[in-house]
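so im writing up the methods section and need the Aldo/keto reductase record in one place, dumping it here so i stop losing it
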Amino acid sequence: MSAVALARTGQAMPLVGFGLWKVPRPICADTVYNAIKAGYRLFDGAGDYGNEKEAGEGVRRALTDGLVKREELFITSKLWNTFHAKEHVKVLAEKQLGLWGLDYFDLFLVHFPIALAYVDPNHRYPPEWWGDDGKSVTLQDTPMQETWTCMEELVDLGLAKNIGISNCQGSLIIDMLRYARIKPQVLQIELHPYLTQEAIVKLCKELGIAITAYSSFGPQGYYELSMDRGATSLFKVDAVTTVASKHGKSPAQVLLRWATQRDIAVVPKASGPERAVENLKSDGFELSAEEMKAISALNCDLRMNDPADIDPRLGIFA
Ligand SMILES: NC(=O)c1ccc[n+]([C@@H]2O[C@H](COP(=O)([O-])OP(=O)(O)OC[C@H]3O[C@@H](n4cnc5c(N)ncnc54)[C@H](OP(=O)(O)O)[C@@H]3O)[C@@H](O)[C@H]2O)c1
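--- predicted struct ---
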């Protein structure tokens, strides 16, 4: 399976993994187990997805059944916004590891460069964006430097092999490099043909930070949330379908290959086994430079996932 070697550890991060956002709890263990059986090795989880215990059950069953060894898996998780303060980062990482039933994460990311008021996990977990009233968002003054220092300690303690960030822009990354003892090894961002993110891809290549694209299918995963901004499905646009028929591949496979061909990792989420396999088998062909260019020309800087929609004070992409 194709992979990128991460800076500092040299660990191989598979280029195609399985995304766990919106995988319902009742089917999550089986979904993970079957994905491992199908050949997936990387799982992209997060405290916020609320299904870490069930994902861990799937992993443990696969380990017990001898489908795979722990060291062959690459498990990613993320620290939620309400746990950025120095007294909470390690506690939450340990809680999340406990849910998965793991000793370490291969990669632990700061989910958003947004610090929100602490919510005791015994009170509500995962806490999501809002307070108890389900409406108000309470910011907290924890600078990224404090959170990042704690992330580095997770590496020192062996709780995370690699650490990184998500939803960050160039100016914040450049600032982090001024104080980071351990550089972020991965940046996970929304990236698809409607939002090609060329400048940050270039910056990260320069800095030796690997990129994981999320929402590779653009609006597809957002239709069910009415967060699709009225965008046409990327599975239906000519630039993608023409290339797909030429190569005898599905539009989904073309969209994934458009990223992985440039060493940008992808973590598509699929409900059925056929789609999961289709997505995993998306790296056995090459798009020509012209085809890559035609797909990239769909860029219109259209972002689906913007916390400013929740509260304008969360305008991290402003
Ligand atoms: N860091 C962050 O802030 C962040 C934010 C968003 C997402 N993520 C990560 O990225 C992962 C993927 O992003 P995403 O969930 O937004 O969406 P996505 O993977 O781009 O798209 C998922 C949608 O595409 C459909 N689909 C999957 N494979 C398909 C195929 N081969 N043919 C046709 N349809 C297909 C799925 O339908 P079915 O489910 O019905 O099969 C679902 O509706 C998440 O699960 C999560 O791990 C991270």
